[in-house]
Amino acid sequence: MQWFGVAGLTLSCETQVDWLAAIIRGVRRASCNRAIGIMVGGPVFSAKPELIAQVGADASAADAPTAVLLAQRLLDLGTQQTEQIRGRSHSRRVDTTRPANP
User: Fold this and answer.
1) DSSP state of 50
2) Cβ-proximal residues to 17 (8 Å cutoff; 6+ apart), any chain
3) Does residue 101 lie in a domain region?
4) Which neighbouring-strand residues pair with 6?
5) How many domains does the chain divide into?
6) How far apart are CA 24 and CA 56, in angstroms?
7) In angstroms, what is the C-alpha Rg of the chain?
8) Which residues pair with residue 9 across a beta bridge?
9) Phi/psi of residue 92, each to 5°?
10) Do 5 and 75 contact (CB within 8 A), yes or no?
11) Model confidence over 4-56: pLDDT tens digits?
């Protein structure tokens, strides 16, 4: 298996929200990286940002440049979590309302 720091998924219609949530849970369970960051995108999340948390994702971006910055932030958070004592639960939601600092 390969190690991934961030996975990105997109959704175009709201009828598949439950399916995407199940996929995200499966990715987290199967991942070699227990701190994998999950980003979502697509018109569904632009129209209803509350769905980001509902599907279990960590972040979403309005455009590609912001997505790159958020992905780097998720990688950084994952690295910090890996360095901390294992076995504790940590929140990793990324604030997508503020621009990421490079």
Assistant:
1) T
2) 11, 44, 51, 54, 55
3) no
4) 37
5) 1
6) 7
7) 13
8) 40
9) -135, 20
10) yes
11) 999 999 999 999 999 999 999 999 999 988 889 999 999 999 999 999 999 99
Q: Is the pLDDT of residue 82 over 70?
A: no
**Residue 50 included in any domain:** yes
Q: CB 60: neighbour CB atoms within 10 A? A: 25
Please state, in angstroms and rounded to a whole number, the distance separating the CA atoms of residues 90 and 40. Answer: 20
Tokens describing residue 80: 């910090």
- The first and second tokens of residue 69, run together, are 């910055």
pTM: 0.76
Q: Residue type for 27, please? A: V
Q: Is residue 91 in a domain? A: no
Other beta carbons within 10 Å of 18: 11
Higher pLDDT, 36 or 79: 36
Q: Which domain holds residue 75?
A: 6-83
102 falls within a domain: no
Tell me whether strands 6-10 and 59-60 are parallel, antiparallel or unpaired: unpaired
Q: Is 58 exposed, middle or buried (0-12, 13-18, 19+ CB in 10 A)?
A: buried
